[in-house]
Amino acid sequence: MTHDAMLAEALRAIGKAGPADPDACLYRSGVLDSYDLMQLLLEIEMRSGARLDLAALVERPITLAALEAAVETATAR
After folding, report:
1. Could you give the CA distance from residue 60 to residue 77 in angstroms, rounded to a whole number?
2. Confidence at 68, pLDDT banded by 50, 70, 90
3. Cβ(74)–Cβ(51) below 8 Å
4. How many domains does the chain have?
């Protein structure tokens, strides 16, 4: 399964749809609130089997593109 497909499944699992723009901030755009964001991050970690570097992830806007890159980095370790 590709990382973008896994992210789409994780969003569906928490009952949310991702933004059309993969560079839109999930939190600031209102797509996810803080609770939903934490659920999504946990869902991604469970599905990928990898631990995301949350400290690095939150240094910039949390976008689908940033999440995909974070999963790519985490699974490459």
Report:
1. 21
2. very high
3. yes
4. 1
Give 11-36 as a 3 state SS string. HHHCCCCCCCCCCCCCCCCCCCCHHH
The pTM assigned to this predicted structure is 0.90
Domain holding 66, by residue range, is 3-76
Computed over its alpha carbons, how large is the radius of gyration of the chain?
11
Helices 64-76, 34-48: axis angle to 10 degrees equals 30
Tokens of 76: 């490459």
For 39-62, the pLDDT digits (tens) are 999 999 999 999 999 999 999 999
- Rounded Cα distance between 47 and 50, Å, is 8
| CATH code of 23's domain | 1.10.1200
